[in-house]
Specification:
Elements: H1 3-34, H2 40-73, H3 75-95, H4 99-102, H5 105-135, H6 141-169, H7 172-177, H8 182-199, H9 205-212, H10 220-227, H11 229-238, H12 242-260, H13 264-293, H14 296-316, H15 322-340, H16 343-349, H17 356-372, H18 374-384, H19 390-407, H20 427-436
Helix pairs in contact: 1-2, 1-3, 1-5, 1-6, 1-8, 1-12, 2-3, 2-5, 2-17, 2-18, 3-5, 3-8, 5-6, 5-16, 5-17, 6-13, 6-16, 10-17, 11-17, 12-13, 12-15, 12-17, 12-18, 13-15, 14-15, 14-19, 18-19
Length: about 425
């Protein structure tokens, strides 16, 4: 296994989460510059809502276009393409003029930058995770795949630290005027470094063997949906947890600030501590998944933990103290690590090589679009209209409870091979197809 291949695969994910987290954390700083409103909460709602609304259309469509590209032409080529797109989005966000400068065009430029980022993100996860898992030895797939979320955690942690640093160093006027733009420019520079890494690594062995054998799928997305629909649905179900992931790792400082007046700077710093715990736990979870438990028990434990604890933990933050905040943040992140330390390997093991990027990418992006950003938007709307966090509570509780029930039917995939393009299709889907042809 090449360390360069793992690094090249993971770097884009770091940048993706760095950028997305920056947007969420710094939105309270720049939102009124692009969406003038009577209150900060309303401006913040517009800033979140406009992007999430557009992403509902853009991200699934882009995933349906980009994922088959990775199955037809290779994971490495898709990895380079996503970074080119990512660079363009970062530059547009960092250079967007304000509402005072160009009026209604300002939010259009800002949202366009995030749209471009969503297009990039729609191809990044599946290309990177599949690329890394395909490079891993059979007994280390979860350990290597966990690097994907180690870099996600590092991206969120880096964005949190950078946001906290510039908030502490720059005066409020300077931060609002130009300081918030600097981290997005830094992300564009990181993209150029990532491109250099990705051009220097070989394609995965299993995909190269597929090309050599002349067995590359001509219509991989169609094949994945028709012959592996059970696996497609499982990816979507597991990605329901994206809303919990987003709340705990990105939105928690903003939520606590809105509901209790807890200082945003303090929340950002304490969130960085909890993210460090998450990042440290991921390799251990990957090791446990590879050597002892397999994939299913850990994912079930995460869903059960949130079903019991999500609402009580968030309720504690309505009267937040530093100790309470840290307890809630660390507990939630340790639960999240149980899934995200082994889910990259699980997703890749659900599909054969010929349709792996499409089978993972499209359902992943559909579920992430629906659930990844919806809770923060709903929670912000609820708080802005004096309803508190009630709607967000119910969504998280419903999601976690559904996860417990649905994950009982999750197959254990630890022993499956990635070396063949002839992995049999889902039995149910294959039988249905046979009856209809």
């Amino acid at each position: 296994m090449s360390r360069k291949a793992v690094t090249a695969g993971a770097v884009g994910n770091l940048i993706e989460f760095f950028d997305a987290t920056l947007y969420t954390l710094l939105a309270p700083v720049f939102s009124q510059q692009f969406f003038p409103a009577d209150s900060k909460a309303a401006a913040l709602l517009y800033t979140y809502g406009a992007v999430v609304g557009v992403a509902f259309v853009v991200r699934p469509v882009a995933a349906a276009l980009l994922s088959p590209y990775g199955d037809r032409y290779g994971r490495r080529r898709l990895l380079s393409l996503t970074l080119y797109i990512m660079t363009a989005g970062l530059l547009l966000i960092s250079l967007s003029p304000t509402y005072d400068s160009i009026g209604v065009l300002a939010p259009i430029f800002l949202v366009s930058g995030r749209v471009i980022q969503n297009i990039s993100n729609s191809g990044e996860y599946q290309a990177a995770s599949v690329f890394m898992v395909e490079h891993a030895p059979p007994g280390r797939r979860a350990s290597v795949g966990s690097v994907q979320y180690v870099t996600a955690g590092l991206g969120i942690l880096s964005a949190t630290l950078v946001s906290a640093l510039i908030s502490a160093v720059l005066p409020a006027d300077a931060l609002a005027a130009w300081g918030w733009r600097l981290p997005f420019l830094l992300g564009a520079v990181l993209c150029l470094y990532g491109l250099r890494l990705r051009r220097a690594v070989p394609e995965s062995r299993v995909f190269s063997a597929l090309q050599t054998a002349g067995k590359v799928e001509s219509r991989p997305l169609r094949t994945a949906i028709r012959e592996h629909r059970r696996s497609v649905l499982l990816v979507m179900v597991i990605q329901f947890s994206q809303s919990t992931y987003f709340v705990w790792q990105v939105f928690l400082p903003t939520y606590t600030h809105l509901v209790s007046g807890f200082p945003l700077k303090t929340g950002l710093m304490l969130n960085a501590v909890s993210l460090a715990v998450f990042v440290g736990a991921l390799p251990l979870v990957g090791f446990l998944s590879d050597r002892m438990t397999g994939r299913k028990p850990l994912i079930l434990a995460e869903a059960f933990g949130f079903a019991l604890l999500a609402v009580p933990m968030l309720s504690l933050l309505q009267d937040a103290t530093p100790g309470r905040y840290l307890l809630v943040a660390i507990t939630g992140n340790l639960l999240l690590a149980l899934t995200y330390g082994n889910v990259s390997a699980l997703f890749s093991e659900l599909f054969p090589t010929g349709v792996r990027a499409s089978g993972v990418g499209v359902p992943y992006n559909v579920a992430t679009t629906i659930f990844g950003g919806s809770v923060p938007v709903i929670a912000t709307w609820s708080i802005a209209h004096q309803y508190g966090m009630a709607l967000g509570y119910w969504i998280l509780l419903l999601e976690a409870t559904a996860g417990v029930l649905l994950f009982l039917f999750l197959p254990e995939t630890r022993g499956r091979t990635l070396d063949t393009c002839l992995t049999p299709p889902d039995t149910a889907s294959h039988s249905l197809r046979a009856r209809t042809e």
